[in-house]
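Researcher: Next sequence.
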Amino acid sequence: MKGSSTSGSRIARKFQSSSTQDEEMSLNIIGTVFKLKSSATIKDLKTMLCNKYGFPENHLEFFLAGQPLLDFQRVVDCGFLECAVDLVFKNIVGMKLFVKLPSSTIEIEGKAEDTIQKVKAMIQAKEKIQPDQYTLVYDGKFLEEDMTLASLRMKNESTLHIIFNPRDVMSVFVKTPGGKIVEFEVKVLYTVSDVKQIVESFIGCSVVHYSLFYEGNELQDFKTLAFYNIKENSTLEVKPSGIQIFVKTWSGKTITLDVTRSNTVREVKEKIFCKVRVPVIRQRIVFSGKRLEDKCSLASYNIQKQSTLYMV
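Model: Next structure:
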């Protein structure tokens, strides 16, 4: 028999009971077995639930056939043995929770009775992250899926942290410098540098002067895929790293150029022409006392970010 909710936001949960004569009763409530004397009252049972799960006592109510059971009534007299009784959470107020991912923080709405499993389902609905890919941490503790927010004494605007499980493997697609798209298996805690090494082992040439890009953004080598919230079947691209260099012209003016270390000296001269209109054929470029050859790359001369070249 099922009671009906009468006010607020209520969630009914059925439980069964068994008795060993008049001495002791065993009640299965929300998956936990509670043992209590047959003389125990409804208030005693509420207190046990509050101590176990952290629910506020004034938010709990028991119903039998739609009628509330009163605190002073004995459990054994209330029909627990003969039929189903509803445990109702009444007037539960929602709480705002923040979930901190490596690259962002999201907001979800929870209730005191929600389990961590339900919280993970909310995160999945928002971020498409599979629940088995991470563990939630609160107050320095790893959270089990059957824990409730109330049992953790969680308050409004608490912050949960996502820790990705390093053993988890996912597939990503990487567009190589040659334009080929290749599927690789990686782990969410691999760094960008790790992924570049995997690509290098596949294409057989160094990618030290290349960067990894995701959705048009350049990724930093020491950060993880999890930090950038890179998910299963994402597409990454390996492209030459962009750097800024300076060129001091004949007139003493210094100009700034955006280049890659794979650019040739000839390509740099063409960029200079676009800036100062000096024909490529008339340009002579020097770096560290050496005249640069048109066919050579900047990397071959160890030209780094913010290096200065000279026109002579």
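Model: The CA atoms of residues 99 and 160 lie 5 Å apart. The chain has four domains: 24-89, 95-164, 169-240, 243-311.
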